[in-house]
């Protein structure tokens, strides 16, 4: 916590994992301080000695709150849910809670780690292929495999949102990935996705993602209207 | 559920994610039916039409219980915790719960997906390199990055086990990941805390009963 007593979130504007936590904090009306960690600049600020001491995995998000430091976005969100329970991010019914966690984990373990900056860098190295195309194809495959499964799962869980009609933990991860997917696959969007769910995703994404902040696959480090806050790092 | 009403677990003997759930079921004394899904035989039984209908991610573990089907090992374990709460797998204190989930997620999102069968196959394809060495190096790097971090984190969370002195979901993730690390010939010299906790946990009955070497689908040559 800062001297003000507010939680401190270490975040990167374009990190989908950081965004999940930012959504949770916004939904729960929790005031916090943001410390940006640029994953590309200076060789990657997550590799600094200071940040490594804070999070040995050298990843964002990391949240300092109530005297403790938590990493892993879903662990952070579950802690926020247990200590600041309104509005709810998990339903009360255990079977619905299982659906929410299943979808969240599908994305957080089954898609995101297979297409993040770190792994795409390793893919480039192991393929000895500096073409962006190789990394793009890898990322697309990771996302489409996961989205193919998710699309099917949502047929039985979804109401207005991922699970029923209330915003849940699993929903948070969708809009960001949809943006990447659209970008990666071309604005034609997902192939073979039925129009209704795709429209639902796009509608949600439009509702949440600032239109003035397009995300591009441009050269690394290109900032396109990302949140700028006076950093205190 | 089967006609007997028991939960049904789709599992592969050597899948670390399946092992996590097997430990949970054993610790909680939950009787269940096992349906083995061989991830290699027949091109991978997880790709069958039937299994795909059950789990569109085409992965184990998958658990049919109480009229629903759940995938993702940690979602399964949290469901078991909420519906069969004793013995506990998560502490009562929210801060300790956060530590348990953080360690579990570090392993389940930060290590395992980067070294499982599926990704190693893709690594082989993208590197156009059929040598096992390339895949082995990739897997070792994924594991050592994660274990370097975990060893540090455990300095502040661990007692007898990963978080304090009771077995938690974090321990259920640790042991199978250590087994993977051993298969990939990771050097454990830098990980004394991980090694010590692992050894302590393996002495417990639930970890032994659920061990890959004692499953219905364990090949003869790997049986204990």
TrEMBL record, chain B:
GO terms for molecular function: glutathione transferase activity; maleylacetoacetate isomerase activity. It catalyses: RX + glutathione = an S-substituted glutathione + a halide anion + H(+); 4-maleylacetoacetate = 4-fumarylacetoacetate. The keyword Secreted does not apply. Its main location: cytoplasm. GO terms for cellular component: mitochondrion. Keywords: Cytoplasm, Isomerase, Phenylalanine catabolism, Transferase, Tyrosine catabolism. Belongs to the GST superfamily. Zeta family. This is Maleylacetoacetate isomerase. It comes from Callithrix jacchus (White-tufted-ear marmoset). The gene is GSTZ1.
């Amino acid at each position: 916590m800062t001297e003000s007593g507010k939680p401190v979130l270490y975040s990167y504007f374009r990190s989908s994992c950081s965004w999940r936590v930012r959504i949770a904090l916004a939904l729960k009306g929790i005031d916090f301080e943001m410390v940006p960690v640029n994953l590309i600049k200076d060789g990657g600020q997550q590799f600094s000695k200071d940040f490594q001491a804070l999070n040995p995995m050298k990843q964002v998000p990391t949240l300092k709150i109530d005297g403790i430091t938590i990493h892993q976005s879903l662990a952070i969100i579950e802690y926020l849910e247990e200590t600041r329970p309104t509005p709810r991010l998990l339903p009360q019914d255990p079977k619905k809670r299982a659906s929410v966690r299943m979808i969240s984990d599908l994305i957080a373990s089954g898609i995101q780690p297979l297409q993040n900056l770190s792994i795409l860098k390793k893919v480039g190295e192991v393929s000895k292929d500096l073409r962006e195309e190789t990394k793009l194809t890898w990322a697309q495959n990771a996302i489409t495999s996961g989205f193919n499964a998710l699309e099917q799962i949502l047929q039985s869980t979804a109401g207005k949102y991922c699970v029923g009609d209330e915003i849940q933990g699993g929903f948070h991860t969708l809009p960001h990935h949809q943006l990447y997917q659209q970008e990666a696959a071309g604005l034609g969007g997902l192939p073979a996705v039925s129009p209704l769910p795709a429209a639902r995703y796009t509608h949600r994404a439009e509702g949440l993602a600032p239109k003035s902040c397009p995300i591009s696959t441009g050269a690394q480090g290109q900032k396109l209207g990302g949140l700028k806050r006076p950093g205190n790092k």
